[in-house]
Amino acid sequence: MGRLQCIKTLERQPIVWTIAGSDSGGGAGIQADLLTMKDLDCHGCSVITSITAQNSVAVELVEPVSEHMLISQLDALWSDLPPRAIKIGLLVSQQQVNCVAKWLTNLAQQDLLPFVVLDPVMVASSGHGFGQCSIDFKPMAGLMSLLTPNQHELSHLCANLLLSRQQDTSPVNDEHTMASAATWLANEYQCHVVAKGGDARWQQQDAIDMYVTQKVANASDIHNHRVFKLSSPRVNTQDNHGSGCTFSAAIACFIAHQFVLHDAIVMAKAYVNNGLTNSYQVGQGPGVLARTGWPDTLAFMPTITPVGTVHPSHCQTRFKPILSPLGVYPVLDSLSQLIAVLNAGCKTLQFRVKVDPPLSPLQTQALEQSIIDAIAIGRDFNAQLFINDHWQLAIKHGAFGVHLGQEDLSCADLNAIANAGLALGISSHGCFEALLAHQYSPSYIALGHIYPTSTKQMPSAPQGLIKLAHYVTLLGEHYPTVAIGGIDSDRLELVASTGVADVAVVRAITEAPDPALSYRLLHQRWLQLTRKRAMAQCLPFSSESLCSA
Question: In sequence order, what DSSP letters do the residues of 207-257 get, joined into one string?
Fold first, then answer.
């Protein structure tokens, strides 16, 4: 059993609802949603809004269910199978929008509202409209967490809102207009927005989505209230029926597995890209997406570009590679402890001195001297010494490398670091940030925080072992991966079972009575675990250690 398959045995499958129409052709709607939910290890429940008579060529008839039946389905499921996330697709009338909004409002008033993603379906892949273009989705404002219109739907949603205020509308036909329209919708509907570009004729070789964030729960503040361009090579296929349904359903599934929204969106985009690449035709019209399981390769992940803000350019010069495995990687703020672990045989470590600006001249001088001393000590021991944050001083005094957090990337001169011949490590907290780090081709990527930690205030939730195993699967072939956050001797074996290459440790050494002895014991144990893991690579993976966490 693979590492990621442990999700099936670690916990009961999370419940996800789809509120949508039935596609008798099986390519979109309820049918596509349930297939996606099953494929992504969720238990899917359905609330059917309408019955359609359709195939891959045409939609012959759409017949809505009664309001009584709609409410009865919602109430029946809520009484026994409450969801972690809800995906809403086809709502065929204003009456249905108002009905679902009223029902969700009742949950919100009890503080029981789960994550809700609305995919405002207006036109089938066959080109048939569902008569929704005049529907007002404003009753859903403040109730949905995420809105995922395609280009056609984005234009109609903006036009309907603007026309209601007797304002002029502009067509969405370039990236700037697309980002502006998506941002406007996010403010109007009080939610996050992913404006999809798969149907945008003005886009050419790449399929470009615009992701507009509000405040994202359990994630870093640096990505809040931002616009990101998510681009992927366009998949040349007409077999794309149900791609929008699949995207929104996949987001709901990843949210149900407790990934933050940023991560859920890029993982869902990779899932759809893979599904389109392996899509197939079943009738005379557009075919359907393949169900390809959890994303396990960087090839289908989107490129993430912040819009409207300065961000570091990709380096022409490669960062210095890691010369030997990091292994147990101490993160220290004391020169005496630095010397102690080096004497114990440590060959890679990080010197992290946190200071609160503004600094006085004496404090600035003391900081620089401590970094000079740390670099000199590391050089004396022929060690790979990384300096945390202070990249200018690391360059000036010839450190082996620099370690930067995500918040530091926008202000650091990465080209200067690379041109100085330094290695670069980048922290990440989830798949989205790991992809941002990957785009700069660093020397290693740190993945955290795995467990709760008291060494620094963390805006994100602990990643845990299952997510760590997923990130290692994505990144492990490309970079040394380093797990960090709350790792000690008791947790070392569980962390090793994820396949991560190295582990960073802080309190396990800094708060130990004998830091040198603590390092030596951790190092020896890690060698035992990784050697054992290497010997077992040709054997089926055992889920026992992961699933006991």
Answer: EEEEEE-SPPTTS-GGGTT-EEEEEEEPP--S--BTHHHHHHHHHHHHHHT
Between strands 59-64 and 43-54, the pairing is antiparallel
Distance from C-alpha of 179 to C-alpha of 217, rounded to nearest angstrom: 22
- How does residue 134 score in pLDDT terms, banded at 50, 70 and 90? confident
At residue 441, the pLDDT reads 96
Q: Which two tokens stand for residue 139?
A: 């009753």
The secondary structure element, H or E, covering residue 262 is: helix 261-277
Alpha carbons 416 and 317: distance in angstroms, whole number:
9
What are the angstrom distances between the C-alpha of 427 and each of 49, 212, 422, 484, 530?
44, 23, 16, 9, 22
Q: In 113-196, where does DSSP find H-type helix?
A: 151-164, 175-189
The burial of 509, by beta-carbon neighbours within 10 Å (0-12 exposed, 13-18 middle, 19 or more buried), is given as: buried
SS3 label, residue 336: helix
CA dist 12 to 15, 41, 206, 338, Å?
9, 9, 38, 45
Query: 510-535: per-residue pLDDT in tens?
Result: 999 999 999 999 999 999 999 988 77
User: Rounded to whole angstroms, how far apart are CA atoms 419 and 524?
Assistant: 36
Q: How far apart are CA 87 and CA 33, in angstroms?
A: 9
Quote the crossing angle between the two packed helices 261-277 and 431-438, to the nearest 10°: 70
Question: In sequence order, which residues have a C-beta less than 8 Å from that of residue 204 and are 6 or more positions away?
Answer: 234
Encoded amino acid at 160, one letter: N
| Residue 19 to residue 89: CA distance in whole angstroms | 6
Report d(CA 400, CA 318) in Å as an integer: 14
* Amino acid (1-letter code) at residue 36: T
Question: Do 455 and 506 form a contact (C-beta atoms < 8 A)?
Answer: yes
Task: State the angle between helix axes of 151-164 and 175-189 in degrees (0 to 180), rounded to the nearest 10.
Answer: 60
Q: What is the pTM of this model?
A: 0.93
| CA dist., res. 351 & res. 370, Å (int) | 9
**DSSP helix/strand/coil, 63:** strand
User: How many C-beta atoms surround the C-beta of residue 420 within 10 A?
Assistant: 18
